[in-house]
Design brief:
Chain B: InterPro entries: Maln_transptMadL. The complex is a heterodimer. Chain A is mainly α. Helix content of chain A is 78%, strand content 0%. Chain B is an all-alpha fold. Classes of the chains: A mainly alpha, B mainly alpha. The interface between A and B is large, with 113 and 79 residues.
Chain lengths: 255, 129
């Protein structure tokens, strides 16, 4: 009987994912109401729950896709994968006011450059503190601190070791996870409650998954504004980190 | 029909991602540059145009609204498949740099928001005067 159930769930992966995520959302909104009286948003709890399950999925299977590595939850990999995530993000643009985007466009571009530089510098400084001295390693860890895609792209371009590349991915993952968890709690202290600051926030944070999760748990109306700038961050990072930023690091610390 | 909305949304995404890839290869970057953002702007412009022409019926809008509403569950599914184990396994360098980068970025949000706003405000004032 149990085998029959598992077989049905595995064969209908995406539908199983809809059911499973729906149940997770229900539990999270219930916890939000009962335990926190709505103070912690249900989506914030759902995302934290998702990350926790991803951790347990990761240690049980040894895979790199969290819960989606368990065969019965493989559908979660499709539902939360880049394709449907991007489709859903674009759909949120349905509620966008073009005027707001125009007004904050320049701040958004400024935020992109400042965001990439500041995260990169943080990564380089920490790497220095832990004894890395060669330009390739420093730039790769700095790049990974922008996002976990920029790290390996830069590492491959400047010839960093595979351990350093793995480290840079880990730094980017930590950043994405913390943005998801931290944003709803920090939002009111940084004025994240209007389209303009959401556009700036998206440009500074950069990680699409972090921004997507963080804003969803803060105020779904702000999602399209943040996502719009965040989506340019990784591309710009892949452009700047292995070129200008690497050259600057090499000029300062030598190869 | 609902599928018209979904199809419109999908075409916007495909065109956006295509442009993102093209921009990426033009500037010699092995990544998609802003594909999703371009798709969003495209969707906003197309919807605005169709609304003005009164060519967008309610079922078509529902097709887009559904995906917009399913966004949060999709993000939860995304969270559930993050590689949390390897993030933590990265050790102190990864944890410290990731954490500090987030703190610095958070702190910069009000600063950068203000920069743009101030110049805009002065612009608005001169405009009023």
């Amino acid at each position: 009987m149990i085998d029959a159930v598992i077989s049905v769930l595995e064969k209908n992966g995406l539908v199983t994912a809809f059911a499973a995520i729906g149940i997770m959302m229900y539990i999270s909104y219930f916890l939000s109401k009962v335990l926190t009286r709505g103070r912690v948003h249900g989506s914030a709890i759902a995302i934290i729950l998702g990350l926790t399950l991803a951790y347990f999925g990761g240690i049980t299977t040894g895979g790199d896709k969290g819960l989606a590595d368990l065969p019965i939850f493989a559908g979660i990999g499709i539902m939360g994968g880049a394709m449907l995530r991007d489709l859903a993000i674009i759909a949120t643009a349905f509620g966008v006011h073009l005027e707001e985007v125009k007004k904050a466009g320049l701040s958004g571009i400024l935020a992109l450059f400042v965001g990439i530089m500041s995260s990169f510098i943080v990564g380089v400084v920490i790497a220095l503190a832990f004894g890395y001295t060669d330009a390739a390693s420093l730039a790769t860890i700095g790049a990974g601190t922008t996002t976990y895609i920029v790290g390996p792209v830069t590492g491959a371009a400047v010839g960093a070791s595979s351990e350093v590349i793995a480290l840079s991915i880990a730094a980017g993952l930590i950043k994405a996870i913390l943005i998801m968890i931290g944003t709803p709690f920090i939002a009111k202290y940084i004025g994240l409650n209007n389209p303009r600051s959401a556009i700036v926030y998206g440009g500074l944070m950069g990680s699409t998954s972090g921004v997507a999760g963080g804003l969803a748990a803060t105020d779904p109306k702000l999602v399209p504004y943040g996502a719009m700038t965040a989506t340019f961050y990784t591309g710009l990072g892949c452009l700047l980190a292995p070129s200008i930023l690497f050259l600057v690091v090499r000029a300062i610390f030598g190869s | 029909m609902v599928i018209y909305g979904v199809a419109l949304l999908s075409v916007c995404m495909l065109v956006g991602v295509l442009f993102g890839d093209l921009i990426g290869s033009l500037i010699g970057v092995s990544a998609n540059v802003g594909g999703v953002g371009i798709g969003m702007v495209l969707l906003v412009l197309v919807i605005d145009y169709l609304r003005r022409k009164k060519k967008l019926d309610i079922p078509s809008e529902e097709g887009i609204k559904f995906w917009s509403a399913i966004y949060i569950p999709v993000v939860v599914a995304m969270a559930a498949q993050q590689n949390v184990v390897s993030a933590i396994a990265g050790g102190p360098v990864a944890i410290l740099s990731g954490t500090l980068a987030v703190i610095v970025s958070f702190a910069l949000v009000p600063v950068i928001s203000k920069v743009g706003k101030d110049s805009n405000d002065t612009f608005d004032h001169t405009h009023d005067a």
